[in-house]
Design brief:
The chain has no helices and 7 strands. It is 0% helix and 42% strand. By secondary structure, it is mostly beta strands. A hairpin with a 4-residue loop joins strand 1 and strand 2. Strands 3, 4, 5, 6 and 7 form a 5-stranded antiparallel sheet that branches. A two-stranded antiparallel ribbon has the order 1-2.
C-alpha cells in the first residue's frame, strides 16, 4: 500500500464447491463492500455484475467500478467517477424493484 494504510484493496470471489478463486486488485486504492447485481434472465449463480466503491487516497476521490462477476479477474467493465470524496461507510443491497 506504499505506506498509505489502505485497508482493503481487492475484490475476491471464492467458489468453495469447485475450489476456484478470482480476484481483482485496485492498485493504491481502497475498496468498499461489493454488491452483486444479477444479470436479467441469469441462470448461473454468478451471472451478473459486482459494483464496488473505490477510493483513491492520493487524489481523495471516489468512484464506483462495475465488474463482470464471472470474469472478475479481468477488471472493471466500466467505472463512474464521482469527482468527490465519499466516506467508506457505504453498504448496499441490490433490488430489482
Amino acid at each position: 500500500d506504499n505506506g498509505l494504510r489502505v485497508p482493503f484493496t481487492h475484490v475476491v470471489k471464492v467458489d468453495r464447491r469447485w475450489e476456484g478463486r478470482q480476484s481483482y486488485g485496485f492498485e493504491g486504492c481502497s475498496v468498499g463492500e461489493p454488491c452483486f447485481v444479477p444479470r436479467p434472465g441469469a441462470k448461473a449463480e454468478d451471472d451478473g455484475y459486482i459494483i464496488v466503491q473505490v477510493f483513491e487516497p492520493t487524489k481523495r476521490n471516489t468512484s464506483f467500478a462495475v465488474l463482470d462477476a464471472q470474469r472478475l479477474s479481468e477488471g472493471p467493465l466500466c467505472s463512474l467517477d464521482l469527482q468527490t470524496f465519499l466516506p467508506n461507510a457505504f453498504h448496499g443491497t441490490w433490488s430489482n424493484e
